[in-house]
Amino acid sequence: MTLLLWNKISTFNGDIAFFMGIENLAATLRRARFAKAQSP
What we know:
Elements: H1 2-38
C-alpha cells in the first residue's frame, strides 16, 4: 500500500520534472531567438 503510494508520488515528481524540462527548453529557445533578433 505504502509502496504503491510512493510509486505514484515519484511518478508525479517525474512528470513535473519532465514538464519543467520542456518549459526550460522552450524558454531557452525563445531567448536564443530573441537574442538573434536583437543582433544586427
